Amino acid sequence: MLERHELEAFLTLAEELHFGRTAARLHVSTARISQIIAKLERRIGVPLFNRTSRRVELSPVGRELYEETRPAWSRITAAVERAVDAGRGLTGLLRVAFTGPAAGQLLAGAAQAFRERHPDCEVRLKEAHLPQVLPWLRDGAADLALTCHPMREDGITMGPVLVREARMLAVPTAHPFARRATVSAEDLARVTVLRLPDTLPESLRDDLAPRLTPSGKPITPGPSAATCNETLTLVGAGEGVFTVGAHTRRYFARPDVVYVPFEDAPPVEWGLVWPADGATARVRAFSETALGLVRNT
């Protein structure tokens, strides 16, 4: 049977693949992590990690152990936290990530309202690039995040939509579309559309960087971009166009990019997401506070 400290050390090292970062996350020495893992491997009888001077990798047995134990450990941790929340009320730390300045501004207001209702619960806000959202939620770096919907992914819960905004197309200033009042979703068949990283959910990639128009015409894929600034830089350089929400025109005004409204596309949606097994009382209360805030404004 694994002891708690052994399981924590194993799971954290399996995610970090670095003894120093694992030690930092668990607030112990690197030597202590090495001792725990070595003792665990002796008891199991096979290596759980393959180590070289430059890298650490899970062995086949280690990967199987990780895949089988991580979901159960997440459920146990969440269950204990929910029990603590129920017994003591809303206390402790809530880590909330956001993508972009508009989301940050909304979260700042939600955090203030939440603190007024639950003064014993600390809220920390942290900006994430879009590809960082799911990894942060999965490894515990964030408890929930405000980001684009739809984020349909196993193990991830999408909360209610908080914001709907007009969908726009970012194009280079010299592009013919830049002189138009509106564009159509079918117009995407005539341009190159920048892609999102493949690590993001297919639901989000299909929404912001579709492969087909509504009528089924193919759309030429362009280079991939991971951040808003990188995306708009590529747009301005003529590498392609990209779908954005209307807030981008205000927060990311650029001399080399024009934002043209879609005449026939649904709005871009934003909402909270969190791990399905991490729906603590704090997470649920923050979601309710954020929803109440936008409904009253």
UniProtKB/TrEMBL annotation:
InterPro entries in the cross-refs: LysR_HTH_N, LysR_subst-bd, WH-like_DNA-bd_sf, WH_DNA-bd_sf
Positions in coiled-coil regions: none
Domain of life: Bacteria
Domain HTH lysR-type stretches: 1-59
UniProt cross-references to SUPFAM superfamilies, sorted A to Z: Periplasmic binding protein-like II, Winged helix' DNA-binding domain
PROSITE patterns xref list: HTH_LYSR
Keywords carried by this UniProt record: DNA-binding, Transcription, Transcription regulation
A cellular component term, taken from the record's GO annotations: protein-DNA complex
UniProt keyword Ubl conjugation present: no
Transcription regulation as UniProt keyword: yes
Family indicated by similarity: Belongs to the LysR transcriptional regulatory family.
Protein name per UniProt: HTH lysR-type domain-containing protein
Organism whose genome encodes this protein: Streptomyces smaragdinus
Organism lineage string: Bacteria, Bacillati, Actinomycetota, Actinomycetes, Kitasatosporales
